[in-house]
Write a structure and sequence with these properties.
The chain is mainly alpha-helical. It is built from nine helices and no strands. Helix 1 packs antiparallel against helix 2 and helix 4 packs antiparallel against helix 5.
Length: 256
């Protein structure tokens, strides 16, 4: 073989190796991208499902339940394109289609939850933040119209306000029951201040009036507890008892 042929064979061999390496690289990248998409879709489906099932019942309307169901269905259908042999996913998608077809008649089975502690309030707040994130991703991916996403963001803001109102109200009422009027007053005051800081405080006028009514009651209880009890001995009551009729008459004349 001539040197030229040998050189050509070496060059061709090198090119073939480069092409094989590039193809392998592309195949690996495709597998990694497919695995990444599957993991992302699976995670988003799980998050939407958790929100749908675990959010407090007082915050889950049929419209919200339907939204989360449809998001799970759309994400699940995308996941099915990557793994058509997943029988469990196929069965789940059938369940979601049945629920989605019910529209606003979809059942809401979430039980109401009392917001009585700061830890519970934070837990629900994180859920609302997670809901906000899922709606944002859905809008970016074209699964949710931009106008619908904006409306849901407003709804989430209202739910966040509802969360704070419930928390401060429940905290205050619990303090009243435990005969701690000062703590109750503080809780109701914080609730009123929170509503006053909202961009549109008039929107929450009813909630503000209810908190103010609770606050007035707590203030009255604080004043009652601050007054000395008639039956309790004190320097003042003992001094009044020691007054004779003449002193008492003189005191009456002074104030008359």
């Amino acid at each position: 073989m001539s040197p030229l042929v040998i050189t050509l064979l070496i060059v061709v061999g090198i090119v073939i190796l480069i092409v094989i390496g590039y193809i392998n690289h592309m195949v690996e990248n495709t597998k990694l991208e497919k695995a990444r998409k599957k993991a992302d879709l699976t995670d988003r489906i799980r998050r939407c499902g958790d929100l749908s099932e675990t959010m407090p019942g007082q915050m889950v309307s049929p419209a919200l339940k339907l939204l989360l169901t449809r998001l799970q269905l759309q994400l699940g259908e995308s996941l099915q394109q990557l793994d058509k042999q997943d029988a469990r996913l196929k069965a789940r998608l059938e369940e979601l289609r049945v629920l989605a077809n019910l529209g606003e008649a979809i059942p809401v089975t979430n039980a109401p939850q009392k917001i009585l502690s700061e830890a519970k309030a934070k837990e629900v707040r994180f859920q609302l933040e997670g809901l906000h994130g899922q709606i944002g991703r859905a809008a970016q991916d074209g699964l949710l119209a931009a106008n619908d996403a904006k409306n849901w963001v407003k709804e989430i803001r209202d739910l966040l306000v509802q969360l704070h109102v419930e928390f401060f109200t429940n905290l205050g009422l619990q303090a009243v029951q435990e005969e701690q009027p000062r703590q109750a007053r503080l809780a109701f005051e914080r609730g009123v201040q929170y509503l006053q800081k909202q961009p549109d405080p008039a929107r929450y006028q009813n909630q503000k009036q209810q908190l103010q009514a609770h606050l007035a009651r707590a203030n009255a209880l604080v004043l009652e507890t601050a007054q000395p009890q008639i039956n309790e001995p004190s320097e003042l009551t003992e001094g009044l008892k020691s007054m004779d009729d003449d002193d008492l008459w003189k005191k009456k004349n002074i104030y008359d």
